[in-house]
Amino acid sequence: MVRIAFFGPEGTFTEQAARNLAGGDQLFPVETIPAAFDAVRSGAAEGACVPVENSVEGPVTATLDSAVDGDPLVGVAEALLPIRFSVLTRADAPDPPRTVASHPHALAQVRGWLGEHLPGAEQRVASSTAGAAVGVLEGQYDAAVVAPVAAEHYPLRVLATDVADLADARTRFLLLRRPGPLPEPTGSDRTSIVVAAANRTGSLAGLLAELAMRGINLTRLDARPVKGDYGTYRFFFDFEGHVAEPRIADALAALRRRSTEVRFLGSHPRADGVAATLEAGAGNDDFAAADAWVEAVRKGELA
Amino acid sequence: MVRIAFFGPEGTFTEQAARNLAGGDQLFPVETIPAAFDAVRSGAAEGACVPVENSVEGPVTATLDSAVDGDPLVGVAEALLPIRFSVLTRADAPDPPRTVASHPHALAQVRGWLGEHLPGAEQRVASSTAGAAVGVLEGQYDAAVVAPVAAEHYPLRVLATDVADLADARTRFLLLRRPGPLPEPTGSDRTSIVVAAANRTGSLAGLLAELAMRGINLTRLDARPVKGDYGTYRFFFDFEGHVAEPRIADALAALRRRSTEVRFLGSHPRADGVAATLEAGAGNDDFAAADAWVEAVRKGELA
Q1: Could you say which residues from 199 to 258 on chain A have a Cβ atom under 8 Å away from some Cβ of chain B?
Q2: Superfamily of domain covering A182-303
């Protein structure tokens, strides 16, 4: 039985993503994002499901930091969930509810809806959306803003569904494993790395130029401060393509040469199915033909 | 009397930064970071003090987003505070305290200290460090992890000072004003802009190359998702130099040509006093001499 740890508790968007990604695998919640990584590193789980990026809040910094601290893990699949909340109450709670609780990020994403539909409810901060549901069950709050899957875990009344101020807010989740055979390239893939750039003029521009020169489209860049070293950063790059493709392999080798520290974080199919852009001269055949020409030049067969 | 709004409540690191930056100006707290920006935009204040970056947690996303939403404001000064906490208790609280509260970011930065010195204390989440101090006063918690300045506002006992897991954690704060005369260049300046890059291969690399080619050292880059437009980003750049210098003016003009949206966020002295690196050929005289040469070529006087 394959065991997948997910950033819990049960009843959150991460559990929903883990269900989408894990097929028939056995899921179990862990308390923190670092604990999900550690479960895979220690062998307690074969995989872990964690959020990596939200279209409103930006990167999930605990996930980025956990990818750097400790043995390398690689992303093998991703899920993209629309972030639309449900609002749950106890059957015996005041109507309308006097208090409504959730994780601060969730409250931030439904601020407009709450102002319109529950203007009199005092907003309370809970440690997670599911933790807010538990608080409602226990009588601590009257209502909770939660992931839809929470309604399956907690015997609460559904006051509203599809609640979101921004119609297309989304969170992307990763399924992580220990390094091993990679997913096959599909033509719609994402490759992720983290790079430490030297602290000198033009170093980041040089790294990005290695991608741009090979026609590789960057899809995300996040800088994270290196803890204990003020003013220095690591850069997380996501870009189109799969390391099995020559242009990606060639770019990774160049980044490896140019930086003090590079870690491969995975090549896997994109959840949104967007096909990689491919510039003239950057295809697999172009790389093979160019390599063959250089080889022939070296042998004195061509010029 | 010049009025400076700061992201409150009173007794936080932001108040400490505002005191350092405001001289004899009148300070008043506002509830949120967007409210601090709005106070200046509306004319309720002449300036605002907000945090922009922490060396452990990274960028303060509410500050970045507020800089884009609404009329432009510019940073005219910055303060860099070491983040070392004090722990306060009520005189009649249990010893050792059974509960300790703070903002989640503060708790994260003293996790090791709490584990060592208050291992039995349950950790509670408060809306701010100063809010935790109020909770201690009101008997809701036994102890609070706060900014040192909080001890001046709340009649609580100081249990510990200089509390920090990482010795050199720092937060940088900005003093913002409406656009107007800029601070004079000092040779140790920081310029900040936000740029929307086109969503195509190499666009960010091209923007950074404009800086690198002119020998301009990037000190920070943050990507923020554009709300409601999944997969598109704005980039916040901080770099060495002052827009009064030709190499910076030249680079800003190039960025303006290459991007759909650029906003100038200020040129002001760096709090850490680090002198700008200046590559050969990038000095003010070099730019003046090169411009003079091109002008002479245009007139047919030189070749």
Answers
A1: 200-202, 204-206, 208-209, 211-213, 215-225, 227-228, 230-231, 233, 235
A2: ACT domain (3.30.70.260)
Query: Mean pLDDT across the stretch B195-199?
Result: 86
Residues A175-211: b if buried by 16+ CB within 10 A, e if exposed: bbbeeeebbebeebbbbbbbbbbeeebbbbbbbbbbb
Fold of the domain spanning B85-163: D-Maltodextrin-Binding Protein; domain 2 (3.40.190)
Cβ contacts from A onto B, under 8 A: 106
Q: Do domains B1-82+170-180 and B85-163 have the same CATH topology?
A: yes
Q: What pLDDT does A177 receive? A: 97
Best probe of the B interface among A65, A216, A218, by most B CBs < 10 A, is A218
Please state, rounded to an integer, the average pLDDT across all residues of chain A: 92
Asked if B201's CB is within 8 angstroms of A217's CB, the reply is yes
Task: Flag if B230 and A56 touch (Cβ within 8 Å).
Answer: no
Q: Between the ranges A195-204, A235-244, B224-233, where is the mean pLDDT highest?
A: A235-244
Instruction: Please report, for chain A, the start and end positions of each structural domain, with discontinuous segments joined by +.
Output: 1-82+170-180, 85-163, 182-303
Burial bucket for residue B96 (CB in 10 Å: 0-12, 13-18, 19+): middle
As a CATH number, domain A1-82+170-180 is: 3.40.190.10
Tell me the pLDDT tens digit for each residue of B266-295: 999 999 999 999 888 999 999 999 999 999
Measured in degrees and rounded to the nearest 5, phi and psi for residue A38 equal: -65, -30
